[in-house]
Amino acid sequence: MILTVTLNAALDITYRVPALTPHASHRVTEVTERPGGKGLNVARVLAALGHDVTVTGFAGGDTGRTLRDHLAPEPRITDALAPVAGATRRTLAVVDAATGDTTQLNEPGPAVTPAEWTAFLGAYEELVHREGLAAVALCGSLPPGVPVGAYAQLIRAARAARVPVLLDTSGEPLRRGVAARPDIVKPNADELAELTGSHEPAQATRDARRRGAHAVVASLGADGLLAVTADGGWRARPPKRVRGNPTGAGDSAVAGLLSGLAERLPWPDRLARAVALSAATVVAPVAGEFDPSTYSDLLPRVAVTGQVTAA
Amino acid sequence: MILTVTLNAALDITYRVPALTPHASHRVTEVTERPGGKGLNVARVLAALGHDVTVTGFAGGDTGRTLRDHLAPEPRITDALAPVAGATRRTLAVVDAATGDTTQLNEPGPAVTPAEWTAFLGAYEELVHREGLAAVALCGSLPPGVPVGAYAQLIRAARAARVPVLLDTSGEPLRRGVAARPDIVKPNADELAELTGSHEPAQATRDARRRGAHAVVASLGADGLLAVTADGGWRARPPKRVRGNPTGAGDSAVAGLLSGLAERLPWPDRLARAVALSAATVVAPVAGEFDPSTYSDLLPRVAVTGQVTAA
Fold first, then answer.
1. Where is the Carbohydrate kinase PfkB domain (chains A, B) (predicted)?
2. CATH class of residue range B2-12+36-90+109-307
3. pLDDT, tens digit, 9 for 90 and up, residues B211-234
4. Is 70 exceeded by the pLDDT of residue A25?
5. ipTM confidence score
6. A32 near B CB under 8 A
7. What residues of B are in contact with residue A92 (Cβ under 8 Å)?
8. What residue spans define the domains of chain A?
9. Cβ contact (<8 Å) for A23 and B92?
10. Which CATH number applies to A2-9+35-88+110-307?
11. Average predicted confidence (pLDDT) for chain A
12. A118 reaches B (C-beta below 8 A)
């Protein structure tokens, strides 16, 4: 079983409109809704790969209820979201049918009280000590009210329970989290540069590792992944450039890394899986889903090469 | 007591963003929610004027629950919304903080089943026979699944119960509704032109009356109202042009007409109230609310002049 944590879960809403014109009135022709927030996206991909996943974080209000109603029928996903008095945020993607372009509007999320945070910590402690837990993923932004060192606390609790923990966030929560020595961090190029001050990926990845992460897997967009670990360094590249919507590609990469970790695959196989899933997500017609046939087509063709890691 | 019917009620959501840029990602800085749909807007203004109002129509899903939660604490408003399996639609106003302009995105509304429509008709029949009911207002668009002749049915039921009925809608539902002989219709210039084929308001208003409405009150935007009734014709103009957001100005005019009807005011007084409320809504800082001091300032200064109605 894998646990994913989404402190700022969201109800993802997609509106299709014939053409988006600022300051005009639009009739929405199609409305779709699904559970969102990085940890819930990761959970959906893990479940599609055949893993049992428990999801936690916060859910509240009528939007939280809608989110949980959507989760309930999902196979292999167990809902362990903690209640919060505020309402779960909505994230709205407005898709312009004429161009296919998307305009994104993200609500900030509910204010979490100190009592709600303390109650969550108790429930999380219990979850990380569950028998058979193979890994924990801590994903996404923090809602208002959650302390900026939240991920550091959650990392220490997972490590105390001897469960490998992956962190995928940005800014100050990433900086504090890395110092708590997570097993894996998966920043993208911008997050890595913000953390280390270096725009040179190889150097920045090594620097992030020196700051405390046991392994750093940097996602370089269409160029694949760069990993620096205790077992060595690798570069994993997709066999070809793919075109499409990159929304959710990073979450699919996290799911690839976690599933490979849970299955005790060696690093090169984990990275190949992450790159193939990521590319299969970019080409999928629905944002954040992955295309299974693209995934199986690309997986054996991802090029993984060893890197000298003069750390 | 006044009854307002909102068959396609909505959860009105307003997002404030620093600046709306198509195809970019935006952090929403402020989220507000309130019950929406024309009949609910009318009810809010009536309640502010001191009238007891019962609201009906459909509400369903988690959005319907949120809408009803917002209604519950409103003084003088009684919730008699009928349940529907589909979810109440959302309407989203994205306000660009830089320019103050609004981009509107309206969901289509839930599909109403024949059984739900029949159940609603039964509940409505009961409501229009309630003792002390002074007027009924039928407001807004029809959700998918409701027959296009719905308003004609509701008008006949109100007239059979000897309760005056006002209709405020557009397109084919307006055309069918007018033929059922409502006491008042309140089209705007576009709706009137669509109904009658004439862009000349005086002629179109008389024509709409010949089609079956006992009184026609046409709203001419910043130019006020033009009324043709069995008691005579009038033109009512605001004392000055006001600047602001016209959202909800038509609903405030309906509330003015209904409150005047319930209080048995003569037509010129009803029209003055409708024009003053409408202008006080345009200048209010919150869309759809009216500014009480502007209302009391303008009310005695609205110019109402008799018109020759050579109908």
1. 11-284
2. alpha beta
3. 999 999 999 999 999 999 999 999
4. yes
5. 0.84
6. no
7. 92
8. 2-9+35-88+110-307
9. no
10. 3.40.1190.20
11. 95
12. no
